[in-house]
């Protein structure tokens, strides 16, 4: 090897030994083997040498190039190993530390009731339907046979939204889940069997009313549905839901614009102890009836061919009764102590009772 190549080799070796990190190493590589590196320059000069010279010097330059490339890679390996060693030393974990306690989430009683209702009605062949919280006043009222100046509109303390929708209808926060009956009948051919759990809104706020609350609606439409089907279905549901096979259930004549005849449903309880069952007193629990022919016609269903029943109930109310929860307001306060007391273990599925 000629002197100049020897010098290049020893200087490069010294620079490599001094390179303490990957960036310094790369700088050495570029200075020697890069586009304007020292060795690259020597290789370029080769073109001007005589053929004789070129053969010898060319071979020497290529050997040097291989040697330097190998030296750079070797140094890179050393630096990588040193960096890994430093990280392993710095990031060592103490495996003896106890783990942090893991927070266990609980199912909110409202969700639990909805799950139980879905399970009980699901076993009876019902599907779940849903609709939007913002409704138009035709679906919330008009289609359900509640005309513009009907007192039921005032009763419901409706939240109206500003403006009107594309169809020229006022927009409301739905005051009940019944508009989803309308949506379902408009979108689906009978026979129909659905329940509709969801949020509902009324401008009402005190110890027993919240401006947002939950209802579940039920709708059955078929060719030969009678009041007997309504009664059997609701008796089975209430006994399964409350887990009392002998729960007394009473149907009391009532009025809703969207059903004819209409019935309110009471269950037996003891007014003094609050215990459900045969205590001799009655507690109103839900509204129901045979779907009004006008409602069927409004939704494009021929009332001479199809009929059915519907019902609606408050989810908070049945949840409070079933679990002895005395106050409505904490349902929405997200107080973790309340949830720890009344919440449900997500890994313990709802038990279904006899009769389903
Ligand atoms: N929509 C009624 C309410 O909010 C409840 C109701 C009563 C729904 C009777 C029904 C029904 O489907 O048939 O008070």
Q: What do these coordinates show?
A:
- By secondary structure, the protein is α+β, with helices and mostly antiparallel strands.
- The protein folds into two domains: about 5-90; about 110-340, Bira Bifunctional Protein, Domain 2 (BirA Bifunctional Protein, domain 2), CATH 3.30.930.
- It has twelve helices and ten strands.
- A seven-stranded mixed β-sheet has the order 1-5-6-10-9-8-7, with helices on both faces.
- A hairpin with a 5-residue loop joins strand 3 (about 160-165) and strand 4.
- Helix 1 packs antiparallel against helix 2, helix 1 runs parallel beside helix 4 (about 50-90) and helix 5 packs across helix 11 (about 315-325).
- The longest helix is centred in the first third of the chain and has 40 residues, at about 50-90.
- It is elongated and about 115 Å long.
- It starts with a helix and ends in a 14-residue tail after the last helix.
- The model has no long low-confidence stretch (mean pLDDT about 90).
- 3,4-dihydroxyphenylalanine binds near residues 217, 256, 287 and 311.
- 3,4-dihydroxyphenylalanine binds near residues 178, 217, 256, 289 and 310.
Strand content: 15-25%
Compute the separation of the termini in Å. 96 Å
Count the beta strands. Answer: 10
Q: Structural class, judged by helices and strands? A: alpha+beta
Helix content: 40-55%
CATH class of the largest domain: Alpha Beta
Q: Can you name the CATH architecture of the largest domain?
A: 2-Layer Sandwich
What does the radius of gyration come to?
A: 40 Å
Name the hetero compounds present.
Answer: 3,4-dihydroxyphenylalanine
């Amino acid at each position: 090897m000629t002197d100049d190549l020897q010098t290049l080799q020893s200087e490069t070796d010294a620079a490599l030994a001094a390179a303490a990190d990957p960036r310094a190493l790369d700088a050495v590589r570029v200075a020697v083997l890069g586009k304007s590196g020292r060795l690259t320059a020597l290789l370029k000069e080769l073109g001007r040498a005589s053929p004789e010279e070129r053969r010898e010097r060319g071979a020497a330059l290529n050997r040097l190039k291989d040697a330097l490339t190998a030296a750079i890679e070797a140094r890179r390996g050393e630096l990588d190993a040193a960096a890994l060693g430093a990280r392993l030393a710095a990031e060592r974990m103490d495996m003896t530390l106890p783990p942090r306690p893991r927070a266990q989430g609980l199912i909110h009683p409202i969700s639990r009731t909805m799950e139980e209702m879905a399970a009980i009605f699901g076993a009876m062949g019902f599907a779940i339907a849903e609709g939007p919280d913002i409704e138009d006043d035709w679906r919330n009222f008009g289609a359900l046979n509640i005309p513009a100046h009907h007192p039921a509109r005032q009763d419901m303390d409706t939240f109206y939204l500003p403006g009107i929708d594309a169809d020229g209808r006022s927009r409301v926060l739905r005051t009940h889940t019944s508009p989803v009956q309308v949506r379902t009948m408009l979108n689906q051919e009978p026979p129909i069997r659905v329940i509709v759990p969801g949020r509902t809104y009324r401008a009402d706020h005190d110890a027993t009313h919240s401006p947002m609350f939950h209802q579940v609606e039920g709708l059955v439409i078929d060719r030969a549905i009678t009041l007997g089907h309504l009664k059997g279905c609701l008796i089975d549901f209430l006994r399964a839901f409350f887990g009392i096979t002998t729960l007394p259930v009473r149907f009391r004549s009532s009025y809703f614009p969207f059903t004819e005849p209409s019935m309110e449903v009471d269950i037996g309880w003891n007014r003094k102890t609050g215990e459900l069952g045969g205590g001799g007193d009655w507690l109103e629990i839900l509204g129901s009836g045979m779907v009004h022919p006008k409602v069927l016609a409004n939704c494009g269903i021929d009332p001479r061919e199809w009929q059915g029943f519907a019902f609606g109930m408050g989810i908070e109310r049945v949840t409070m009764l079933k679990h002895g929860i005395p106050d409505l307001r904490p349902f929405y306060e997200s107080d973790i102590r309340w949830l720890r007391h009344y919440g449900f273990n997500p890994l313990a599925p709802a038990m279904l009772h006899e009769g389903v």
